[in-house]
Amino acid sequence: MTARREASTPPRLPGYEYLRVLGLGGFADVFLYQQELPRREVAVKVLLAGSLDDEVRTRFQQEANLMAQLSHHPSIVTIYHAAIAADGRPFLVMEYCSRPGLAERYRQERISVAEALRIGIRLASAVETAHRAGILHRDIKPANVLTTDFGWPALTDFGIAATTGHGGGATVGMSIPWSPPELLGEHPTGDERSDVYSLAATIYSLLAGRTPFEVAGGQNTAQQLVSRIERSPLPPTGRDDVPWGLQDVLERAMAKHPARRFASAAAVARALQQVEADLRLPITPLDLTDESDSGQDRGLPLESPDGGREDATRLRSIVSVAPEATAVPPPGADEPTRMRGVTSVAPELAPVRVGPVRPAGPVFVAPAPLEAVEPVVTEQRGRARLAAGIVSGVVVLAAVVAIGAAALRGAPDDGPSATSEFTQGDDPTRIQDVVPAPAGLEGVRQADGSVVFTWENPDPQDGDQYLWGVLPATGEPVLAVVDVASATVPADAAAGQVCVEVAIVRADRRVSADPAQGCAP
């Protein structure tokens, strides 16, 4: 075992008095200083670098400026100052977080599910804010989450080491136990979904008291961890108080293939909020600015090439279906109200043929009519945002989606298609009315080569149906409605691994806020 190195010599900084070492990292040391004016204790991160050329200095300054843009976020460590010390080492002066960080806590104490959810949502909002500023964190893990004096998680180390020339690319500063498979290969590639994986892996660690693929009492070498991360399914946390919904969120966020994960950190936060709602816990707000809230957290591109918001009715949360349409068109159709996995269509399109599982083999029947998606108005943290569109040439209902402290209520009458069926009662904050995702989705390959998928309805209600479809390698799935909690993918469409998506459809035409996804080999 390599001996732990000693801290580097703290630099002399005018206006600051050195107090003690706070921590050592792979690319930097952190020291506690006393700032003289204004007088306060600050953490100073000093990069380890024998020599820094002009290019590295410039890149460091650019990265420091980007980090400063994020400092207003309540779950991101505040940056006070950045400069180059007299000895040539770049340094950052940061907020001093005096409470134990997550690295100190997750192995030493049992963190409650409620607290893990709060931490996860706040961290997800921090990661989403960074992504929208064009910053990938690259190294989300418990050691990079501090705790403020007020008990809030505070994300730090936004890829600064990656700008100093120590290896370059997304692999710099990478920590194997929390890294996704795509960053562990010979030619690593990563994007926002890589941060989504690491975010979920961090939440998992808080619940399990260990890293996700660590075997308690077993061998956990780097090679063994990499092999498990790349090939093994995510093990359960081992806690009876972790609900299936939370395990499902973690499994999806940590899917082996990035395309199977949540597309954004905001989507992870929404899913965690739903778990809070299912547990009847207070809903933790998602801290995003008005400009950010108006787009990507609901699956919306912020801007289109012409400067406006493209596809302004694309949503990921609550949807409505209307009885006129029968199926969803394949990708590429003109669909102004397309959302992830659900799209409004004209009634003349042919349905996908699916049906329940029978003992003598699968029998395929025409599904119940798939109803058109209605546009929705979303209001989060008291800020209203409109997502309006035209569905099959008919202007349909606008409603308010409740997330956190947002309101969910009926919209004004717009004619025959505008009804009050979206009204959720007198309580405008009833996020528990959000339709849950199916549980226990799994597929079993049959002797004839077909795959039978089954699932459970965690909150069955009269009139429930299920919206399902096969997930293609690219594009959107073609969806159909079935009345039973099973569906069969025929052999000619089930060659190799096959993955499906399933949502619950209520009698009042509400659909699961976050459909379940599952695969079969």
From TrEMBL:
Domain Protein kinase: 16-273
EC number: 2.7.11.1
Pfam families: Pkinase
Transmembrane stretches, start-end: 386-408
GO terms, molecular function: ATP binding; protein serine/threonine kinase activity
Stored Gene3D superfamilies: Phosphorylase Kinase, domain 1, Transferase(Phosphotransferase) domain 1
InterPro entries linked: Kinase-like_dom_sf, Prot_kinase_dom, Protein_kinase_ATP_BS, Ser/Thr_kinase_AS
Residues annotated for ATP binding in this entry: K45
Keywords: ATP-binding, Kinase, Membrane, Nucleotide-binding, Serine/threonine-protein kinase, Transferase, Transmembrane, Transmembrane helix
Region of interest (Disordered), residue spans: 286-311, 410-430
Name of the protein described by the UniProt record: non-specific serine/threonine protein kinase
Top enzyme class: transferase
